[in-house]
Amino acid sequence: MNGLRALTAALAACAALVALNGPPAAAVPKPASAPAPALATAPMSAPGVSAAGTDWSVAMTDSTMARFTPSQIGGWSYPVGLYLYGQYLVYQRTHNPKELAYIKSWVDRFVDSKGAIGQSFNNLDSMLAGRLLVILHHETGQAKYKTAATKIRNRLATYPRTSDGGFWHSTSDSRAHQLWADGTFMVNPFLVEYGREFNDATYADDETTKQLVVYGTHLQQPNGLLKHAYDESKTASWANPSTGLAPEYWCRAVGWYGMAAIDVLDDIPANQPRRDRLLTILRNLAAGIEHYQDPATGRWFQVADKGTHADDWTETSCSSMFTFTLSRAAEQGYIDPHYAAVAQRGYQGVLAKVALGADGRTNLSDISIGTNVGDYAYYIGRTRATNDFHGLGAFLIMNEQLRRTTGSGSPKAGE
Fold first, then answer.
1. How far apart are CA 62 and CA 56, in angstroms?
2. Taking 70 as the threshold, does the pLDDT of residue 14 lie above it?
3. Which of 391, 402, 250 has the alpha carbon at shortest distance from 323?
4. Which long-range contacts (CB under 8 A, 24 or more apart) does 31-38 make?
5. What is the DSSP letter of 342?
6. DSSP label of 271
7. Which pLDDT value is given to residue 43?
8. pLDDT digits (tens, 9 = 90+) for 89-124
9. What is this structure's pTM?
10. What are the distances in angstroms from CA 332 to CA 73, 187, 374?
């Protein structure tokens, strides 16, 4: 990983960390490779609080760490894991040891000195934070993180699947036989990074591409978007009795899939047999995302294809996810270069939802809280939260990508 040698002294001074001695960087998220341009301002939420020149990633991680200690931020869960993964991406750019120390302190609440972790991993949601185990092994070389991460890897060997091999969203009776687009991000980025870190890439590349293709085959529709979920048994209350599909395109579920596809494509080799199929799914998805972008704000709607409905609303976490997906995919050549401009419009739209409060801390608004599968009224009625971790994590992932690829052009101020 770039700059690890230079960071050793700084991290050694941080009591929560040990000296860096991890293996090569291919196993973990890639650091920024270009200088970051200055970012534009977003609307201010209180008089006299200036947002000019704000580094929104640093401001957001500083604000969140000020609001919560590692023991207060929450238990082992995917929203906290998502946020802390975003914080790690910020750390890769800033090399601020307190950002990594915070992550390590949180993880060490759940992993003891021998690597034991008190999680059953009976649902995909519980696996997302496993990415932090791989990251901390890479950063510290401590074997306990490999031991804990391997518990997830081994759980997958017996984890229940649909008849065509897709991981159930959960082993519980209420989720049996179901594939949720959300689940693709809960497990596949962890697994592909686990494969790189621990020399298990043959299995990881095969499994992650299989999962994404199975999910994509069931969920993706002719408009390019993915239905929220599929029930192979066709018995769920929300399932179409003929197709087993959920009724709506919930935007964050679509965003989870897009980001998972990017993370896997970034790590698998060019000759992986399912790569071309996965690229086809991603290209169709990109076309759908572009089609349903709100022309007024650049963001995307909570129910992605119904933005013309008066009660539909633009949602910040999925808008961040779509922006990241299009930007990274265009940068990597997975999709046509014109999608970079679509991502820029999305970026400006999301920046309009972040502001500095009177206390100088960031506030990110219009984030849908955690959501099950439902009908249109259910999605539209979800609480529109401020500073929900789904939104904070997605914002950081997006912002680290876009501030790097924006170049000399600076996004405009909010709407």
1. 10
2. no
3. 402
4. 31/1, 31/2, 31/3, 31/92, 31/93, 32/92, 32/93, 32/400, 32/404, 33/2, 33/404, 34/404, 34/405, 36/93, 36/403, 36/404, 37/403, 37/406, 37/407, 37/408, 37/409, 37/410, 38/410
5. H
6. T
7. 46
8. 999 999 999 999 999 999 999 999 999 999 999 999
9. 0.90
10. 34, 22, 35
